[in-house]
Specification:
Blueprint: H1 3-34, H2 36-57, H3 66-81, H4 89-99, H5 101-113, H6 117-148, H7 167-187, H8 194-210, H9 214-230, H10 234-257, H11 259-274, H12 280-294, H13 305-312, E1 316-320, E2 325-329, H14 338-365, H15 372-384, H16 397-412
Antiparallel strand pairs: 1-2
Length: about 425
């Protein structure tokens, strides 16, 4: 066999390997609604395939990105400080070792699998379909439990196709790159394309509102406002005014459909914000700071908040009054805020590295504000990291895959397109 034949065979093998990775990437949004386990398996497989690609091809593109370098620094720091965990060294090591799959997932999507426009578009098409499916499921669920069965717990919280009550926050986190994708499609054609875009946006916003998740509702509204302001494409900004009008119509429709949900989302949210420090979330944040204070330099150790917190605070308390009952949590599996979680479990040094990582994301985002899909992905990252709302754990497998897949989607718009024999 000639050298040319060997080279050609090697190139074909690499293309098949890359195609396999792309197939897994395309089903990743579907795995997100199947549960944390399938999601983690899919993301880990992508990370593993990327690691093999990097070793075989000596592809160092990811290492040129500051955000990826900082993610590696955070990973090394977590590993190095795991032996100093205050409660469970094994839990700290486990979390540190497995954290690497998240930035590897983002790098795989951003620098390897989604660098060609048609593959990015295919990924966006799958993600958009999953979002519309999840929103439709949530609306059907709401109609079923409120109009047909008429039996549900108060306040109503929808699950959609998920095994937990997170359909609203999932839609909020992932809707904006899809909105950017849809708006770019609308601006490339006639004005009639605005009709399906408006219907889809209304569907998603109604599902978020009726889901009963107040944080998701607040962040979705914030995201629409920010997106209308930061996209420097006149046509897109003009269409975002149309999107804001759709949001207003959706709010009116939600009030007509469910006045009780509307009152809870507005009145209860404002009341909670007015006394945030005395709510369960505010108390959990305070507990996180107190746990961090036990070892302020390197923290209590990864996944150790859940073990250390009950030793210094009462896990929970139920307040009873003549006309109210309120259950307050002082301890949980995590402090429900990424910044507090980072300080509690990784100390001041870990928090500084994390803040630098956030700065790395901003640095990667700024040069591509003219790309509506990248803006939407960056906006999803911003909303996940918004400081003064409750967060899921930054290290949770499902939360992590959703977050780092948005990072990969955002930076894929910066990655150079490389020629390939099989596209």
């Amino acid at each position: 066999m000639s050298r040319h034949d060997v080279s050609s065979a090697g190139a074909q093998a690499q293309d098949r390997f890359k195609t396999a990775g792309r197939m897994v990437a395309l089903i990743l949004p579907l795995l997100m609604i199947l549960g944390p386990g399938p999601t983690d398996v899919g993301a880990s497989l992508i990370a593993l395939l990327f690691l093999v690609h990097v070793v075989v091809n000596r592809d160092m593109a990811a290492l040129r990105a500051w955000w990826f370098r900082l993610a590696l620094v955070l990973w090394v720091f977590m590993l190095a400080t795991a032996p100093f965990a205050l409660a469970s060294v094994s839990d700290a090591f486990s979390r540190a070792a497995t954290f690497l799959r998240f930035p590897m997932l983002a790098a795989a999507l951003g620098f390897w699998l989604l660098t060609e426009p048609k593959w990015r578009d295919r990924y966006m098409g799958v993600l958009l379909a999953i979002i519309l499916f999840s929103a439709s499921w949530a609306l059907v669920e709401w109609y079923w439990v409120t109009r047909v069965v008429q039996s549900y717990s108060h306040p109503l919280r929808l699950t959609g196709p998920f095994d937990d009550r997170k359909v609203g926050i999932f839609l909020t986190k992932t809707m904006f790159p899809c909105l950017g994708f849809a708006l770019a499609w609308a601006t490339a054609g006639s004005a009639r394309r605005l009709i399906p875009v408006g219907i889809g946006l209304l569907l998603v916003l109604l599902a978020i509102f009726l889901s009963g998740e107040r944080s998701a509702f607040l962040l979705a509204g914030l995201g629409l406002l920010v997106m209308a302001l930061i996209v420097p494409i006149h046509a897109i900004r003009r269409l975002m005014r149309y999107g804001l009008l759709v949001a207003v119509v959706g709010a009116l429709g939600a009030y007509v459909m469910s006045p009780a949900t509307f009152d809870r989302q507005i009145d209860s949210t404002l009341e909670t914000l007015s006394r945030l420090s005395t709510t369960s979330y505010g108390l959990l944040w305070q507990s996180g700071v107190e746990v961090g204070d036990l070892s302020p330099v390197v923290g209590a150790g990864g996944k150790n908040f859940r073990d250390v917190c009950p030793d210094i605070r009462s896990p929970n308390i139920e307040l009873q009054g003549t006309d109210y009952s309120e259950y307050l949590e002082f301890c949980s599996t995590h402090p429900h805020n990424a910044y507090v979680e980072m300080f509690a479990e990784h100390g001041v040094i870990g928090l500084v590295i994390f803040l630098a990582l956030v700065g790395g994301f901003i640095t990667a985002f700024l040069p591509q504000r003219a790309d509506p899909v990248a803006v939407g992905a960056g906006l999803g990252i911003l909303l996940i990291l918004w400081p003064v709302v409750p967060h899921g754990s930054f290290f949770n497998n499902w939360n992590g895959v959703v977050f780092w897949s948005l990072v990969g989607l955002m930076v894929s718009r910066l990655a150079p397109v490389r020629p390939s024999a099989a596209s």
